[in-house]
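PROTEIN DESIGN WORKSHEET
SECTION A - STRUCTURE
LENGTH: 492
TOKENS:
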């Protein structure tokens, strides 16, 4: 049997954690028919333990499943869980798992345990399924006894990455932060691709360079006591911001963040490519919910929310009605030409849409369905304007196709006054600070990001963990641009 150094990290700072016994160097590498499996890491957040298994042999194909059970302190029921994981990316053969002990089960555990002890023995068994040329076999040889130690930790709530040094060290461990020293542009920290997760990395990189939001987290007194709590995205986001901006690390591996979002939404559990735009909306939504709940602060709304005003006019009687609707992202269709400007795309926003036939509109004046026209304009501009260029659309055969039209966008002085007549010319001016690019086809694409550092006014090209300086002329004719991030010039 081959022996390799153990790769594990765990989080001891949380209320429920693995004991010292587990921390001891222990080799979990197993050999099965010359296939090597290593239990890569386990860490806990609250009462959920996360882990990953790395399979070091690529001799088998397509499917690896992980089955596990927790035998809690002998007498109670066994939790059987099963997650079948398919991997799409041959670069990383990491399969993630999640063991959740529900609050009810935890309470039961606490009530039956010896009152003098805060230790719960538990046995976790893993079974790994290999598929070789479509023949599957299960290997059950991965059982271990763990001891869960419950800390009677009352100071837990005061732990914040902005205040607690020991906690920072722990978080850096969880993220397996690689210290600075390797060639990386400026002070920017790269994010390792976990296999198809460039959609997540690109969105994180753009958001982290959204200076009013990042300043809010790092400079605001209010955020210093955003503390460790169960699976709160904002807490993990703050950990990420700290690691990326503390100027100590060149690369981090965003597994803890990925696992938290995978817990919140199933589609993010596995490592596979997703749409960056959808993920951006998901993340802003959860950040907003968390910040409202913990801090009652509407900062996400203040920064990112704009308002549309749509006016529908009856073509028979000229009666009109006005509706207001919030937007987080301005989605613009791209004309089918080889090249156009962002202003061309914006013009379509204000074009009258005629409502006829099946889309006729109920006029409250005529009291019947009437032909109408609908006009959309922006009523309130957001401080941070995110524009999605609608590159992906269904064709007549209902297949998704990508539009590669070169859209020329201004880096400085994007003026939106035409789309938002109620704004003053001062308010309507925007500066670009980030672009998310999508290269390749829909199914086989890759996301990268251009980001501008607000202090150095320097552009960077972020390609997952690789960060390079780049000249702004690289932004000028960029047919891969998918999401554009602008900041209002006179945002107060
Ligand atoms: Zn009418």
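SECTION B - SEQUENCE
RESIDUE ASSIGNMENT:
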């Amino acid at each position: 049997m081959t022996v390799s150094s153990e790769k594990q990290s765990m989080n001891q700072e949380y209320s429920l954690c693995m004991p010292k016994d587990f921390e001891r160097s222990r080799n979990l590498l197993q050999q099965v028919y010359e296939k090597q499996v290593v239990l890569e890491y386990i860490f806990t957040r609250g009462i959920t333990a996360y882990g990953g298994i790395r399979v070091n042999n690529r001799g088998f194909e397509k499917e690896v499943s992980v089955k596990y059970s927790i035998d809690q302190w002998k007498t109670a029921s066994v939790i059987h869980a099963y997650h079948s994981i398919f991997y799409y990316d041959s670069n990383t053969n990491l399969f993630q798992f999640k063991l959740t002990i529900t609050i009810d089960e935890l309470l039961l555990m606490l009530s039956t345990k010896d009152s003098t002890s805060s230790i719960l023995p538990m046995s976790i068994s893993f079974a790994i399924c290999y598929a070789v040329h479509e023949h599957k076999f299960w290997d059950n040889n991965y059982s271990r006894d763990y001891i869960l130690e419950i800390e009677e930790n009352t100071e837990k709530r005061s732990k914040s990455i902005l205040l607690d040094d020991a906690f920072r060290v722990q978080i850096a461990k969880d993220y397996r932060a690689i210290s600075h020293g390797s060639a990386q542009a400026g002070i920017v920290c790269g994010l390792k691709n976990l296999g198809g997760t460039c959609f997540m990395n690109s969105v994180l990189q753009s958001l982290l360079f959204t200076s009013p939001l990042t300043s809010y987290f790092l400079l605001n007194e209010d955020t210093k006591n955003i503390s460790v709590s169960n699976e709160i995205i904002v807490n993990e986001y703050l950990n990420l911001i700290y690691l990326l901006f503390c100027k100590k690390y060149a690369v981090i591996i965003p597994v803890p963040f990925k696992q938290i979002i995978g817990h919140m939404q199933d589609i993010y559990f596995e490592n596979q490519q997703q749409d960056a735009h959808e993920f951006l909306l998901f993340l802003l939504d959860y950040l907003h919910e968390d910040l409202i709940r913990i801090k009652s602060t509407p900062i996400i709304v203040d920064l990112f929310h704009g308002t549309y005003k749509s006016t529908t006019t009856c073509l028979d009687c000229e009666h009109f009605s006005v509706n207001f609707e919030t937007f987080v992202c301005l989605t613009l269709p791209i004309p089918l030409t080889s090249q156009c400007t962002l202003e061309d795309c914006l013009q379509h926003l204000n074009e009258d849409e005629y409502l006829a036939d099946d889309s006729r509109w109920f006029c409250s004046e005529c009291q019947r369905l009437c032909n109408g026209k609908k006009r959309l304009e922006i009523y309130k501009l957001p401080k941070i304007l995110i524009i999605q260029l609608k590159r992906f659309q269904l064709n007549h055969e209902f297949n998704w196709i990508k539009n590669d039209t070169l859209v020329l966008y201004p880096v400085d002085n994007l003026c939106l006054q035409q789309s938002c007549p109620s704004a003053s010319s001062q308010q309507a001016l925007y500066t670009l600070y980030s672009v998310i690019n999508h290269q390749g086809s829909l199914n086989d694409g890759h996301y990268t990001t251009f980001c501008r550092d607000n202090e150095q006014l320097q552009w960077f090209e972020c390609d997952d963990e690789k960060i390079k300086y780049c000249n702004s002329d690289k932004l000028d004719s960029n047919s891969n641009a998918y999401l554009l991030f602008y900041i209002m010039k006179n945002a107060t």
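SECTION C - NOTES
The first helix runs from residue 20 to 23.
Confidence is low (pLDDT under 50) at residues 1-37, 57-64, 71-90, 150-158.
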